[in-house]
Structures are given as C-alpha cells and as structure tokens.
Write a structure and sequence with these properties.
Radius of gyration: 15 Å
Number of helices: 4
Helix content: 10-25%
Structural class: alpha/beta
Number of domains: 1
Largest sheet: 9 strands, mixed
CATH superfamily: Dihydrofolate Reductase, subunit A
Strand content: 35-45%
CATH topology: Dihydrofolate Reductase, subunit A
Distance between the termini: 14 Å
Length: 162
C-alpha cells in the first residue's frame, strides 16, 4: 500500500479542514498517480472535496466513525481494520491512502511507499503528518529537481520503508 501527501517544511498538511495550498502541478501529480486506483480516506477528507463527492475514476474507500454514514459511489467502512480488509481484494500497489491526518497516522504502518510533495515553506496549520525524515523506518529514495509555484519552492519526493 502507498500513500500520497503534500506537506510543508514542518510536515503540516492542513488547516481548518482544508489543504495548506493548492499547487496545480501537485494536483496533477495526485490525479495522474491515483486515477484508476483505490483511494482510502477519512470522512472529513471526503467532505473537503467539491460537493463532498467521491473522486471520479477511482475506487473510493471512506473510513467513518458513524455506523449509519453512507456515501453514493464509495465503500464506507467503520474502522482501520475494516479498511485493511476492504483493500485485500486489490493489488496493494494500486491502493493509496490520501488522508486526513489521523488516517495517515493509523495507516502509515501498512504502507511501503510514500509520495510526498514537500514544500519548503511553513504555513499556519493544525494538522500534521509524521516526519519521515526523522523516522528510521523510512528512507528518502528519490527527489525531483526544485519546482516553484509563485514564491514557494517544492519537491516531489518518494520515501520507501526500509
């Protein structure tokens, strides 16, 4: 299983239920990487999408705490264990964890690859991703050339579990 996330230099990922910044090339990378695949997310991540609708051309698995929560066009599960069970029918290389904060933390031990868009800038934030640079179980395997979006420098990084 893989994950895909955009972080700032403090490994922040969100503020007040939204992304820190929307970088068109990052959005394109996300779309190209996850289209035709399985995406696993928490309910709040789904709600943050336009119209609170599942992502098109992907198998959406949504983890919700409320047992009566249903979403048209998505498989709703009610625990991390149920999510892990639901993804068993797919090739693990085709499964991407896409957030939010608590889902990333709980699913990280089950992932072997992390696609991280790393922004060399600190934003106001209230949601964070574990710092993979300080985690002995992860190694930076690849990093793109520096990219820029207005005054923000960013890099596409791939981390692998050791």
């Amino acid at each position: 299983m893989k994950l895909i996330v955009a972080v700032d230099k403090n490994w922040a990922i969100g503020n007040k239920g939204g992304l820190l910044v929307s970088i068109p090339e990052d959005m394109k990378f996300f779309r190209e990487t996850t289209t035709g695949k399985v995406v696993v997310m928490g309910k709040n991540t789904l709600i943050s999408f336009p119209g609170s609708k599942p992502l098109k051309n992907r198998e959406n698995i949504v983890i919700a705490l409320e047992k009566d929560y249903k979403v048209e066009g998505a498989t709703v599960v009610y625990s991390i264990e149920e999510a892990l069970e639901a993804v068993k029918e797919y090739n693990t290389d085709d499964v991407y964890v896409i957030g939010g904060g608590s889902i990333y933390k709980q699913m990280l031990p089950y992932c072997d690859t992390a696609y991280v868009t790393y922004m060399d800038y600190g934003y106001e934030a209230d949601t964070y991703f574990p710092n993979l640079d300080k985690d002995n179980e992860w190694v930076l395997a690849e990093e793109s050339e520096e990219q820029t979006y207005f005054d923000v420098e960013y890099y596409f990084r791939t981390y692998k579990r050791v």
